[in-house]
Amino acid sequence: MLATFVASSPFLTESWRLCSLANTTAPESFVTDHIGTTGYIAFSGIQNVCGSDPGFRNLVQMDCTDGLFAPLLRRGEGEDPAMVHAGFLHLFHTVYSCPRFQSEALAIMQKSKSIIITGHSVGGTTASLVSLWLLSYLQQTSISSPLSILCITFGSPLLGNESLSRAILHKKWSGNFCHVVLGNDIVPRLLFAPLESFTSQLHFLLQYWQMSMASPHFAELNTQVLAKEVKAELFLFVLAHVGESARAERSSYWPFGNYLFCSDEGEICVDNAKATVKMLRFMFRMSESGDYGIKEHVKYGDWVEKVSSRFMTRRVVEGEREYSESSYEAGLDLALQSCGISRQVSIVGEAKECLKMARRLGRTPNLNRAYLAIELSKKTPIRAQIEWYKRCCDESEDQMGYYDSFKQRGASKKHSKINMNRIKLATFWDEVIRKFDANELPHDFDKGAKWVYTSQFYKLLVEPLDIAEYYRTNMHRVKGHYVEHGRERRYHIMDKWWRAHNSNLEENNKRSKFASLTQDSCFWARLEEARDWVHDVRRERDGRKLTFLWENIHNFDNYSRRLVDRKEVSIDVLAENSSYSRWMEDLRDLKSQLHYFPQLPGFFDGGMVP
Fold it and tell me: N or C: which end of the chain has fewer CB within 10 A?
């Protein structure tokens, strides 16, 4: 869809026109234009890439950018940070700190409904970083009608690592990027390989490319860039590492966004990173008998002249070849023909499997979500049994309530059944979180109201039971208190989903009746800590430690009273024999005892004990 839109609109031709203008008139800089309601910013491919090692491969974290990319820096437990090429990040900072860029970018934002940010070669990496910065800025400023941002690059090197690619997917920004790759162009493949041994050859190639950008006729005049043996050696070296990355599905650098692969035969668009790497390999192999992808890097203008008029036109198959009766197989044949692979008999099978994989990977997240929805429906009876158990505990004559009844349970079939249900639900939600972390679910999964509200209800209903089990088995004596040392990761993730979903909602008004479930799922864990503080106060003699304990007790007392006053607790909290009711009695007793011991320092003078 994105490829169709870009190629059938004036965006592609205008982007390349401005890239060419930047290359010839604004080396190491940019040009801007405004056409209708669309603003353009185009970055020159003639850049001095400093701050990089000889192999142009060093990565640096994006958290050194003063919050310019803050939405991309959030990551889950155990995830690597988003990282980008140091030299390319330095180029971005140079542009960003330029007063002219600040003023012209602001003017374009004020006058435009959509902005196209584009760049050729290294200029494409600057365009990508400027686009990420602008998307981050628009999200953080919460603009109600944000600008439409589209980044179009031509022959851009890879920018960052897989964590960056994953972060862009999570933010649903992949659709904002279209990377045009002319079939055999070596530049988009270079950073898959460690290039230290080719430093001198690369410097020579960079000079050739930049001189060709500044003066397009230079490429035609200079027919021999490097000795054929050197070009072949570099080609085979890069091809081997692209192939290894495709097989291992892992590399220091990783693609993101949509890739529009182009050839003399036509175009094909791929939006899955793994499939993109495989296509980079397949199409690069086709240059083995040509110029090894070196001159392709400065031929994007020739391709742009052809593409708009022919894109999506029906092509006649050469010879007597017929399409498969299957429309899906026919589509694959057309795709392979459009990118020129159909002529390479040795790789047709692999390339077709790659496109099938891309389709499967594209469908898998939605299918996984559908399967999880089915599994969730099967868990409804289990959840209903726990709700019934809570109601029975709250109505029981022993007046202990839900939390304490489960914590002090005996050996009965009813209690065992509820404990087993607790474990089953935990297993289900852990699998949901695992799939979400592994990008096996749609990238907006955590924004879907159904899953956010269902996970919140689960957390409020079941986490008190987890807390009860934690303290029942004295795990707090082994690991420490629950909130800091025992809470499962799934609850932290659910907290994050809930906060994000409700970030723009006003705080609820005071309730007219008590909540069905206590709105702080960690309430009982905080109470267990407060019980220890009261116990410690009775034994402690160190004045500073006593002050610290009383401050904690005072804070919890205020917090719990506020919840009760706002009716944000379930009735089991106020049950006559609940842990909270007993804690309140213990606290009153402790305060009354202290009145008989005025020698204890600081508590009455400082107002800590009322």
Answer: C
The whole-angstrom separation of Cα 410 and Cα 332 is 64
- Inter-axis angle of helices 579-594 and 523-539, nearest 10: 30
Are 530 and 559 in contact by the 8 Å Cβ rule? The answer is: no
Let me know if 121 is a catalytic residue. yes
From the candidates 120, 179, 241, 297, give the one annotated as an active-site residue.
Answer: 297
**Of 121, 85, 293, the residue nearest 207 (C-alpha):** 121
pLDDT at position 51? 42
| Closest to 338 (Cα-Cα) out of 306, 300, 290 | 306
Q: How far is CA 494 from CA 409, 491, 505, 572, in A?
A: 28, 5, 17, 24
How crowded is residue 100: how many other Cβ atoms within 10 Å of its Cβ?
11
Contact 125, 44 (CB under 8 A): no
User: With a cut of 50, which residues of the chain have pLDDT below it?
Assistant: 51-56, 312-325, 328, 504, 506, 596-610
Please confirm, yes or no, whether 396 is among the known catalytic residues: no
The span from the CA of 511 to the CA of 432, in Å, is: 32
End-to-end CA distance of the chain: 68
Annotated catalytic residue, options 15, 20, 44, 121: 121
Catalytic status, residue 63: no
Task: Give residue 334's pLDDT.
Answer: 53
Task: Write down the pLDDT at residue 63.
Answer: 74
Residue type, 230: V
* Rounded Cα gap, residues 493 and 230, in angstroms: 52
Each residue of 14-69: pLDDT tens digit? 999 999 999 999 888 999 999 999 999 999 999 887 544 444 458 999 876 678 99
Query: Helix, strand or coil for residue 73?
Result: helix
If DSSP codes are grouped into helix, strand and coil, which group holds residue 260?
Answer: strand
User: Are the CB atoms for 242 and 235 separated by under 8 Å?
Assistant: no
Place of tokens 């055999």: 184
Ranges of beta strands (E only) in 156-247 are: 177-182
Model pLDDT, residue 317: 39
Would you say 189 and 238 are in contact if contact means Cβ atoms under 8 Å apart?
Answer: yes
Q: Which of 20, 179, 185, 404 is an active site residue?
A: 185
Contacts of 64 (CB under 8 A, 6+ apart): none
Give the per-residue pLDDT at 315.
40
User: Longest Cα pair distance anywhere in the chain, in angstroms?
Assistant: 105
Instruction: Dig out the tokens for 398 from the structure.
Output: 């022993």
